[in-house]
């Protein structure tokens, strides 16, 4: 069941020569109880889309439906939608509990109901012990929990989260990612989460919409987006990527045979509803490739240009004989460095279903 339908929504700021198209005809269906993420680089229109859903701003064209109803006539406070902002926007002179109850008070809810709901929310975000602390006296991560509890207190049907974790340091961010997932699952509320961090999007989301320059480039679950990027921008933005120019030799069913520069042929998959032919670009993820000492029967070969130790993995940059830089990612064992050295000539093997 669609909680939110975005139908051809655009937002153009300014006029004449100074026009900026923040969103250009976006279509999206976001399901009830979904953890849905808008992912894209800074300036691609993520915040604009959230503001339109919240009612802080209005589309230049298009409609937004909430459970089938056009929400255009509803002012922000009448929409069953709430927002968690990046800067939390808490009231520093109030206690944790007062902050959480603030929205309910504004709605004129009875005292007893507010009290019960605040306790419930404190428990949900594991902040009961902090209920009487001033917000200015708790940590950033705890403030984040309070902001989440406050936004959920009025029981919104949809919660909008605009880069809520980007101000937190790495460890705390990882911890809050897990917390947000847990709270979403426990409450069953539809979350629309915004991030420019692809790893965060991949680990947290049921589905992701990848955006660029005011449009949605691809929608899918994390592995669809990662393993089957629909286009170059998506492949490049999500994860590390090698691009190779190849020639299509034959197509059968959902896969093709393509010829590399070396003349060797490898299998490749391609997006549904497309029939590749002629010269195409394929994507090979660095972890789908491995080095080999032998160069003669390997589909690719070249010279090692860089070796970067990354803890769990080592990234090896190989300058292919054709001139392109190709990254290979190998898992580290506990027996020390990877055993290859810069300047060494190597072959590159590819796993079976590597390319697109
Ligand atoms: P994101 O949240 O993905 O970083 P935004 O939605 O904030 O992107 O902005 C999208 C584009 O719209 C940007 O080019 C931004 O400069 C522009 N924009 C956003 N708000 C306004 C505004 N009020 N007036 C003019 N341009 C705006
Ligand atoms: Mg933004």
Automatic annotation (TrEMBL):
EC main group: translocase
Transmembrane segments: none
Record-linked SMART domains: AAA (SM00382)
Alphabetical keyword list: ATP-binding, Cell membrane, Membrane, Nucleotide-binding, Translocase, Transport
Any one Gene Ontology molecular-function term assigned to this protein's record: ATP hydrolysis activity
Subunit structure: The complex is composed of two ATP-binding proteins (PotA), two transmembrane proteins (PotB and PotC) and a solute-binding protein (PotD).
Physiological role: Part of the ABC transporter complex PotABCD involved in spermidine/putrescine import. Responsible for energy coupling to the transport system.
UniProt name for this protein: Spermidine/putrescine import ATP-binding protein PotA
Organism the protein comes from: Rhizobium daejeonense
């Amino acid at each position: 069941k669609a909680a939110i339908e975005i139908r051809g929504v655009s937002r153009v700021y300014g006029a004449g020569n100074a026009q900026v198209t923040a969103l250009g005809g976006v279509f999206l269906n976001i399901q009830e109880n979904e953890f849905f993420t808008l992912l894209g680089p800074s300036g691609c229109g993520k915040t604009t889309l959230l503001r339109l859903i919240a009612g802080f701003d209005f589309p230049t064209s298009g409609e937004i439906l909430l459970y089938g109803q056009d929400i255009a006539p509803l002012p922000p406070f009448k929409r069953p939608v709430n927002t968690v902002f990046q800067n939390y926007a808490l009231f520093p002179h109030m206690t944790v509990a007062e902050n959480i109850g603030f929205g309910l008070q504004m709605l004129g809810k009875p005292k007893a109901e507010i009290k019960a709901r605040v306790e419930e929310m404190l428990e949900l975000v594991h902040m009961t012990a902090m209920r009487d602390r001033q917000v200015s006296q708790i940590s950033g991560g705890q403030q984040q929990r309070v902001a989440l509890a406050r936004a959920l207190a009025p029981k919104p049907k949809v919660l909008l989260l605009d880069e809520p974790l980007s101000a937190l340091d790495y460890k705390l961010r990882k911890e809050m990612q897990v917390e947000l997932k847990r709270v979403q699952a426990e409450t069953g509320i539809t979350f629309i989460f915004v991030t420019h961090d692809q790893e965060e999007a991949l680990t947290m989301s049921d589905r992701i919409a990848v955006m660029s320059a005011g449009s949605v480039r691809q929608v899918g679950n994390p592995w669809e987006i990662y393993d089957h990027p629909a286009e170059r921008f998506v492949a490049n933005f999500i994860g590390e990527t090698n691009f190779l120019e190849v020639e299509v030799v034959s197509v059968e069913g959902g896969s093709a045979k393509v010829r590399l520069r070396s003349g060797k042929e490898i299998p490749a998959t391609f997006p549904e509803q497309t029939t590749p032919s002629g010269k195409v670009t394929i994507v090979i993820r660095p972890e789908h490739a491995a080095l080999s000492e032998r160069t003669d029967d390997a589909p690719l070969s070249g010279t090692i240009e860089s070796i970067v130790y990354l803890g769990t993995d080592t990234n090896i940059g190989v300058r292919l004989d054709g001139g392109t830089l190709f990254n290979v990612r190998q898992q580290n064992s506990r027996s020390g460095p990877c055993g290859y050295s810069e300047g060494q000539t190597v072959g590159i093997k590819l796993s079976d279903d590597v390319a697109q």
